[in-house]
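Appendix B: complex inputs.
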Amino acid sequence: MNFSLSKAQFFLLLFIIETGIVYISFQTPLISVSRNLAWVLFIIAGVIHYLLIIFYERYYAYFYLNTFFQWVYKIYWFSISVVFIAYMEYVLASWVLPQTPEWVVVLMIVLLSLYANLSRPETVINIGVMLLPIIFLFIVFLMLAVPDLKWANLLPLEFDNPLQIIKGLNHSIYAFLGVEMYLIYRPFLQRELILKGKPLFFYQQIIFVFYMLSVLFTQLFFTIDEVKLVPEPIIYILKSQEVTFVKRLDIFFVYIWLSWSIVTIMIFGLSFRVVHFVKERKRPKLNILIYHILLAIFPLFFIQINRIEVIKNSLHYLFLIFTFFLPTVIIFWNKWRGKKCIEKES
Amino acid sequence: MYRKGILVLVVVLLAGCWDERLYKNSSVVTLVGVDGTIGDYTGYYAYPKTTANQNEIMIIESTGLSPRDVRNKTNLKIEQTLDLSELSAILVSNDTVKAPLYDILDIYFRDPQNPITIKIAITEGEVKPYMEITKNLADSAGGYYQRFIESSEENTIYPKLDLQTVGSMLFDNAIDIALPYIKMNEEENRAEAAGVALFSGQTFTGKVLDPKQSLIMLLLMKQASKQARLTYMWHLDGNEIPVTSEVIHVKRKWTVNEQLKTIKMDYTIEIEVDEFSHDKLYKDYILDDVQTMIQNKVQADFEEVLKILQEQKSDTLGIGRHIRSYHPKMFKEDWHEQFVTLSLEPKVKVKVIRTGVLR
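Resulting structure:
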């Protein structure tokens, strides 16, 4: 595939994919496991995330995927898309559309992704722009909860349980799921553009502050025993706010989150295309269609509370493999062999 | 591409078909009453009905095993399904809350269609008469109790709570709730704010603080609202003169001694004199005397309320939260037992900072 990205497009793509689906839910396991330490561990996770993208920036040229690893990542992204779509439908069914058949919602999401992925790559890349004002609006709504926050919930801080800290860190860093896309899209950045230094730092600060707000609000709004009962705490906080112009602020935000998450699914589809069509293939549209047909069928098997819970309790381990372990192995293996991926012409 | 766009749009629009809910098909409930205990609940639902160009508030009653079962049974009796999305208040009888409160609240938190910014109050005796008095209202039944509770919140009689904040505190063993308590004024056939019902954990202790004690408790909690008025008698030359003052600011500092298990609770209360029928308040010796009198009275009231809270194992001030956050070694999971053993030493300083538009 041939396309080029500006800095803004690249960071927007990365921001949407990292925040898209997990934003409303990762706080519950994080706070349940690490209790009052959650906010401190998330700051450490932010530092790890920054170091990781610096590492990616330095060695992205060596992230060459052979056929085997191409399939490994394609299967991973497909699986992630499947479970994310299942989770999106589950959240919609719980909060807004309890009577709507599951297949209708899944089909709706998949059709939008199909539409975007049959179009030029620029469609998927630029569609995230429309989300910026509504994400800003969401932050404004969240601020309504400030009077209900209990600052004492940040304390006490006890660092005497290493297992709790490790688990908490794992759940914290999971917030940045999808960060490996940096390696996929970095070669498409226009050549003359430099990301090192300030641009990377500002991007990291924006995403970190955006996530940190959600962790702080959840921790300050709910008691620890209470948050264990609330799988989507951010939506619940918004449900607890009363405004005059809309009866249920939570529904308003669920739809914001839905559109945000659909764009994430589109980007996962685009990533699949980027890797899949490295080689010239016959009937590319049919390939994309088959991918989306499977994407419409598989999620239907996961839309149940027990399966959703199993997935939520295991994704953060998968994330470690595909974001830390495999990229490191692939990068150092290729560096040792002196094999680089081809940088696209701008 | 145009056709694909149309197809996508049609699919998006389809999603609303199954979940369409029209008000014309629903009985929009604004007030719910709950009596009884698990296995034998009685529920009351108040909803407006228009008959012959006249608005009327209907009250319907059902029994069932659980709050949800009661609602299901009620649906069997009416021509339109109950819709609680416009609910404004829940009334619960004092006998019902002797069992864990969350038992009756779970359905309100679990179902996203139920609002959780609503008010909750405890009634003295059965809920039914409190529901019945709303029948003749021109406005909604729930709206009446919502305004009733909010008005007492502004007068610093009831703490500012809604269902969400109540639920949040029910899951925290380091703080207890105090809910609005309403009694029936038989002569006037109207509800009357009777103070707050003290809870220990999820259950009602049976103790109710009267409105004056409730106000003192809220000052201890540093939650003086728009109006917080204290009235005491000032003795001068054998005469009794009422002095009413309004609380302007409350400053609080708690000092914990972990070894001695004592908490020094220093309060500085700044007040404005609202009523003083004797003149010469501008004279220092009179102002000092009035100030000292109010200070001593408030000191005594603080001690009395703290004693009641400890007797009832009801930490409505959130001392447990403070200890857990800033003195974690001192905090124990069975907080209520530990709370009773603490030595709480309030010390109040009252300052008159204004005297109204008169000297």
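Residues 105 and 173 of chain B are 18 Å apart (CA to CA).
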